[in-house]
Amino acid sequence: MIRSENIRLFFIGLGIVTIQIVLLRHFEIIGAQSDLVLIFLLWLATKKSKTEVLLYAAFLGFLQDALTDLWGLNMFAKTVLIFILFGYLNRISQNRLLFWQVFLIILMAAFIHNVIFYGLSLFTELYSPGFFIWSLLIISSMFTALLGSFLHLVREDK
Predict the structure, then answer these.
(1) What CATH number did the domain enclosing 76 receive?
(2) How many beta carbons lie within 10 A of that of residue 20, not counting itself?
(3) How many Å apart are CA 36 and CA 13, to the nearest integer?
(4) Most CB atoms within 10 A, among 39, 103, 132, 142?
(5) Beta bridge partners of 32
(6) In a domain, 145, yes or no
(7) Domain range for 58
(8) Does residue 158 form part of some domain?
(9) Residue 17, C-beta contacts closer than 8 angstroms, at least 6 positions apart
């Protein structure tokens, strides 16, 4: 059933993918970039049912892949991550979290996402090993966690 809330979240997701592709893709630190789509999906996992979040993860990951020519890597990594972490994220959503707790949760999720992404990229031989693995696993995860923690600080629903 299509509800206005789902339509609103759908358009917010489209906007986030657009911001990711147009703006954040070009804002790199040592070859690593933050993943705003992942942050949105983690937030969504605290608000919606597992099926809805998996559908959002698949669609937004597919859209992100289609616009960056990544052959479904983001779609698979984001869907598997939500499948793995949904129970934990849903359980902790009842608590009021501090900045460092949010940072660690997003860091852990981004690291797992990047491990899945890198493992898949080895099969497709999309990236060469070496510096990329450190840039992706460590710097990108930290960058995503910092962005997500900052967004947690400035959110409206306090």
Answers:
(1) 1.10.1760
(2) 24
(3) 10
(4) 39
(5) 29
(6) yes
(7) 4-153
(8) no
(9) 37, 60, 63, 64, 67
Can you name the residues that pair with 29 across neighbouring β-strands? 32
Residue 110 lies in a domain: yes
Residue carrying structure tokens 């099926």 = 51
Residues of the chain with pLDDT under 70: 1-2, 125-132, 156-158
How many angstroms separate the CA atoms of 47 and 52, rounded?
10
Cβ neighbour number for residue 86 with a 10 Å cutoff: 21
pLDDT tens per residue, range 44-80: 999 899 999 999 999 999 999 999 888 889 999 999 9
Identity of the residue numbered 77: A
Asked whether the CA dihedral 45, 49, 51, 55 is positive or negative, the reply is: negative
User: Cβ(19)–Cβ(31) under 8 Å?
Assistant: no
| Tally of domains within the chain | 1
State the sign of the Cα–Cα–Cα–Cα dihedral 59, 71, 121, 103. Answer: negative
Q: For the full predicted model, state whether its pTM sits above 0.70.
A: yes
